[in-house]
């Protein structure tokens, strides 16, 4: 999707009054009805606190879906025009490379903004958005929904209660079994749009590693390559198509049997990065886009034990803890904690994400997600991608401005 940008922003517009005046439902506008439109559907809760009242997408065929799902909504091709539609908040669900422009317009207009992750595709663009939100005292929320995934929250609770002692190392293996379908047939495959999948896809897991460790990466090194999908010569442009138009979990195996990849494929399909966090924790993240299975496996090692998840969603997912004695291989562990099963996408994470965003729009205050942490995950992913493309050179991760970081760590205290 390409969003047409207005030549004139809504700077100076009085912020919509919904959350200030005690309205029952927040009025939400949605930019982008593509891959993440399920979040828009989650946010439409008429009579229960929020409703989608306007949508923006240059693909007008998506408007029929919006009307079926949301009723008599306002429809726009131009994002600037939608910002004049008396909104309390916007969800920006458009491709990554549009975030800085659309987010800049919304934040300058004083409209509370939900930005799908990653915050942006360049570190300087992240810093621009953070500064605009502070300058205009506009509430900014970044959609790192994995902080609401039951498996991640279970691990974090176990760490907080001291199940493994003081955390020393975190490892994450990400088996992206549907990577060929989800990331190599559209704009995700073009590094001009994403920087790379270590950023676009990995930003989730890098953020989780930082959250579990209680610190951000300050030094990284990485290796990776485009190892499989570059060998596939069958390519086609898919303007207007969506993954549902080509995704078939029973087909496309083995990976080299894929067809119809994006005309430009120049992002890595295999990546491995090492991280040194600013509290001394060391971490690793591995991502592969052609595995037969699709899930994430985290291992957290501390001074008094180890924990690891098996499965990340669904009724069989558990977190196992080994912390009572030394032994050989023991699949039974000392403690097995079932991962709660919740309704909605990503194991209930999407519902939790929207719950928190709507509460934040209305009342402000601290949130489990963090704009500054979102910036930290982008910065680590970008610098690691640079390391890959420079032969694995060790690189420092630029820190955010101290005053800007303090503003967000204190819960955006200036927000209206």
Low-pLDDT runs of 5+ residues are 1-21
- Using the CA coordinates, give the radius of gyration: 21 Å
What is the terminal separation in angstroms?
Answer: 32 Å
Indicate how many domains the architecture comprises. Answer: 2
Shape, principal axes of CA atoms: globular
Number of helices: 14
The fourth-level CATH homologous superfamily of the largest domain is: Dihydrodipicolinate Reductase, domain 2
Spatial strand arrangement across the major sheet: 14-13-12-11-7-10-9-8-15
Can you name the CATH architecture of the largest domain? 2-Layer Sandwich
What is the N-to-C order of secondary-structure elements (H for helix, E for strand)? Answer: HEHEHEHEHEHEHEHHHHEEEEEEEHHEH
Summarize model confidence as the mean pLDDT: 92
According to CATH, the fold-level topology of the largest domain is: Dihydrodipicolinate Reductase, domain 2
Q: Structural class of the helices, strands and pairings?
A: alpha/beta
Beta-strand percentage range: 15-25%
Strand tally is 15
The major sheet is characterized as: 9 strands, mixed
Instruction: Please give the CATH class of the largest domain.
Output: Alpha Beta
Helix content: 25-40%
């Amino acid at each position: 999707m390409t969003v047409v940008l207005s030549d004139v922003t809504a700077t100076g517009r009085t912020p919509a009054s919904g959350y200030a005046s005690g309205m029952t439902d927040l009025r939400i506008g949605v930019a982008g009805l593509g891959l993440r439109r399920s979040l828009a559907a989650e946010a439409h809760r008429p009579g229960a606190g929020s409703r989608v009242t306007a949508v923006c997408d240059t693909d007008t065929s998506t408007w029929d879906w919006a009307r079926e799902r949301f009723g008599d909504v306002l429809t726009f091709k131009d994002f600037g025009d939608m910002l004049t539609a008396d909104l309390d908040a916007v969800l920006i669900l458009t491709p990554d490379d549009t975030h800085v422009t659309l987010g800049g317009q919304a934040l300058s207009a004083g409209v509370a903004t939900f930005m799908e992750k990653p915050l942006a595709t360049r570190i300087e663009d992240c810093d621009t958005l953070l500064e605009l939100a502070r300058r205009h005292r506009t509430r900014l929320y970044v959609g790192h929904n994995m902080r609401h995934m039951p498996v991640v929250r279970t691990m974090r609770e176990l760490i907080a209660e001291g199940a493994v002692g003081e955390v020393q190392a975190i490892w994450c293996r990400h088996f992206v079994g549907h990577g060929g379908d989800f990331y190599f047939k559209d704009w995700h495959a073009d590094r001009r749009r994403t920087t790379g999948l270590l950023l676009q896809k990995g930003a989730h897991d890098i953020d989780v590693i930082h959250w579990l460790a209680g610190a951000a990466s300050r030094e990284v090194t990485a290796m990776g390559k485009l190892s499989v999908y570059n060998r596939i010569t069958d390519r086609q442009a898919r303007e207007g198509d969506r993954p549902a138009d080509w995704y078939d979990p029973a087909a496309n195996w083995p990976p080299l049997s894929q067809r119809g990849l994006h005309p430009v494929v120049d992002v890595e399909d295999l990546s491995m990065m090492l991280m040194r966090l600013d509290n001394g924790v060391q971490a690793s993240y591995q991502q592969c886009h052609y595995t037969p299975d699709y899930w994430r496996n985290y291992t957290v090692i501390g001074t008094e034990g180890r924990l690891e998840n098996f499965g990340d969603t669904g009724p069989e997912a558990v977190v196992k803890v080994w912390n009572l004695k030394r032994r050989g291989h023991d699949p039974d562990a000392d403690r097995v904690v079932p991962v709660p099963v919740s309704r909605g996408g990503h194991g209930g994470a999407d519902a939790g994400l929207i719950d928190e965003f709507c509460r934040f729009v209305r009342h402000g205050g601290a949130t489990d997600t963090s704009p500054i942490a979102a910036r930290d995950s982008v910065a680590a992913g970008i610098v690691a991608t640079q390391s890959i493309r420079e032969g694995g050179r060790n690189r420092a991760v630029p820190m955010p401005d101290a005053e800007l970081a303090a503003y967000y760590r204190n819960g955006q205290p200036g927000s209206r």
